[in-house]
């Protein structure tokens, strides 16, 4: 029994040994296969990394580098001399112009004092020095000024007026002794309108003054240049104080009503020996009322269209 058992067990023992021996023969081949797979994995990873590096480089070249170059301001106009100085302020140049026209930047007298740079395709005006700060502030303040509207024409016919208005030059031709005082009335000449702004609308111009057609509220004004027509010094004058009146002659009241008054004192050696006096105010007038100017004294006024005149303008009516 023991011999049979040993005989039957021997093939089983040999088969196990052969099997282990067989496994020992196949192990180098399996290691070679694993090495080849590892090599392919390394190649794939290396290729992927190379592709990523190339993609990153292409992105930098196409997108980031141009942007980095563009973010560096390009100096077009440099006034200050110090290098690497931080600006006090930089403002887009178009915001400092009324017209928002970029072409006007280099022609503007204030902006020409500033450093002008290009940043992201936009012109920036920068201030570094004290003078540039002043120019920058002045350019900001002037934006608050009302826009100037050009006058289409200096001819009277090119303007629109209130329902009634007049502006006439004064002439010295009449003398009067109203109220017991010697006075010189300022005359008007409706036939001589050579001075470009003289006009009258719904107002009758006579030698005595301006007669209104419509009743209402009027702005009335006058200017008189006091300049004695004499070489005598002021201390020899009987009256050294000159008075001019703007008077209303009321058709309904049949009376003379002073509306405005201007006074000038003559003085030897004074800078104001001659002086222009302007006065104006708002008054109600009735149809037929006359506005005139009189100066109490003789030969005391210089008559020029720029300094001696009278006018009125209707502001509103009933």
What does this structure look like?
GO terms for molecular function: cytokine activity; tumor necrosis factor receptor binding. It is found in: Membrane. The chain folds into 2 domains: 74-143, no CATH class; 161-316, Jelly Rolls (Sandwich), CATH 2.60.120.40. A hairpin with a 4-residue loop joins strand 12 and strand 13 (255-265). It has 318 residues and is α+β, with helices and mostly antiparallel strands. The protein is built from 2 helices and 17 strands. The longest helix has 69 residues, at 2-70.
> What is the number of strand segments?
17
* Class from helix and strand fractions: alpha+beta
Q: Quick one: overall form?
A: elongated
Kindly provide the radius of gyration, computed on alpha-carbon positions and rounded to a whole number of angstroms. 51 Å
Number of helices: 2
- State the end-to-end distance: 154 Å
- Examine the coordinates and then state which fold CATH places here, giving the name of the CATH topology of the largest domain: Jelly Rolls
CATH architecture annotation name of the largest domain: Sandwich
> How many domain modules?
2
Task: Describe the main β-sheet briefly.
Answer: 7 strands, antiparallel
What is the helix/strand order?
Answer: HEEEEHEEEEEEEEEEEEE
Q: Average pLDDT across residues?
A: 73
């Amino acid at each position: 029994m023991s011999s049979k058992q040993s005989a039957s067990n021997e093939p089983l023992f040999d088969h196990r040994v052969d099997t282990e021996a067989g496994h020992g023969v196949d192990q180098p081949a399996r290691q070679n296969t694993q090495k080849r797979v590892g090599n392919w994995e390394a190649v794939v990873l290396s290729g992927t990394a190379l592709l990523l590096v190339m993609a990153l480089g292409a992105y930098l070249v196409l997108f980031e580098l141009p942007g980095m170059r563009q973010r560096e301001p390009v100096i077009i106009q440099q006034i200050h001399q110090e290098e690497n100085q931080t600006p006090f302020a930089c403002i887009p140049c178009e915001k400092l112009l009324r017209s928002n026209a970029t072409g006007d930047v280099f022609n503007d007298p204030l902006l020409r004092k500033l450093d002008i740079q290009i940043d992201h395709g936009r012109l920036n005006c920068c201030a570094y020095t004290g003078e540039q700060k002043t120019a920058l502030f002045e350019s900001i303040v002037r934006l608050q000024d009302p826009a100037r509207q050009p006058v289409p024409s200096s001819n009277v016919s090119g303007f629109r007026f209130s329902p009634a208005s007049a502006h006439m030059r004064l002439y010295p031709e009449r003398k009067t002794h109203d109220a017991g005082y010697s006075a010189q009335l300022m005359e008007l000449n409706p036939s001589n309108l050579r001075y470009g702004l003289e006009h009258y609308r719904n107002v009758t111009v006579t030698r005595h003054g301006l007669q209104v057609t419509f009743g209402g509220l009027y702005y009335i004004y006058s200017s008189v240049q006091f300049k004695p027509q004499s070489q005598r010094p002021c201390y020899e004058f009987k009256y050294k104080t000159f008075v001019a009146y703007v008077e209303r002659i009321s058709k309904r009241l049949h009376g003379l009503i002073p509306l405005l008054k201007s006074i000038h004192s003559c003085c030897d050696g004074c800078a104001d020996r001659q002086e222009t006096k302007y006065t104006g105010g708002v008054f109600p007038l009735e149809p037929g009322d006359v506005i005139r100017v009189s100066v109490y004294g003789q030969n005391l006024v210089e008559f020029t269209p720029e300094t001696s005149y009278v006018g009125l303008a209707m502001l509103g009516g009933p």
